[in-house]
Amino acid sequence: MQAWHVHENGEPSEVMRLEQAEPPTPGEGQVLLRVRAANINFPDALLCRGQYQVRPPLPFTPGVEICGETEDGRRVIANPALPHGGFAEYAVADSAALLPAPDALDDAEAAALHIGYQTGWFGLHRRAALQAGENLLVHAAAGGVGSAAVQLGKAAGATVIGVVGGSAKAAVAKDLGCDVVIDRRSEDVVAAVKEATGGRGADVIYDPVGGEAYTQSAKTVAFEGRIIVVGFAGGTIPSPALNHALVKNYSILGLHWGLYNTKNPKLVRRCHEELTDLAARGAIKPLVSERVPLGEAAAAVQRVADGLTTGRIAVVMEESA
Hints:
- The chain is α/β, with parallel strands linked by helices.
- It is built from 12 helices and 15 strands.
- The radius of gyration is 19 Å and the shape is globular.
- The relative contact order is 0.16.
């Protein structure tokens, strides 16, 4: 089979090599999957750089989210078991964690449903208890993680304010359903959020960026608001002033979705059932901005690493194209 291997840590376009390899052998409790499509996530870039919380042994194949096919022909969503990731023709995954791919989504869309939408659902509903009618502020609203939060927020009946960088991404955020779009490159984010909310601020803030975005969040969060810390795609991990949270009476909520796979896997399945239902009703649909063949995976991962993409890029195998 063909598989991308990382032999040393560095930038994806420099360290990912497409090589011939034997299909991986499943371990106990694992299953071999034929990859139909693999979604590119920012953690794939971090894995290449050696900066992710999980550091598989070298060489490894990145690709943490796939739509695959079992030996008996079932179409499933899975998180491959590293070091045998999804940027290959075959991958392995834990059999107990396989989820049925929704019929309403094609392979690329199904591959993009899992991590981003599960993270959004757990963040907005499990952690922040988002209510209909509340103001939801989403940073990086045109990105893979942000676009999922936008759609889930709209499905929940929230007024969604999206923050993006650039006019092209602003157009994408508007098409996704954002009620208000703020271009951080040309607008004052804090002033624009206060204007959009009549001075109240955002009840829930979804932040996968960190750095300056978190600073803006703390300035725009409403009384009894909730800031969900999802990640640090901006590269800077903020140090919150807890006295500020005390004075303004807001909550800072951390979200590590992967923990639910071990702490409460039944809740992961319940979330998938709700996401499948939302997809069937057309309330959510992963924004797959680009589909690329396996041979272009390294360049695509680099574009995601550099923040040059909107929505998701999916690596689609020839049989599923």
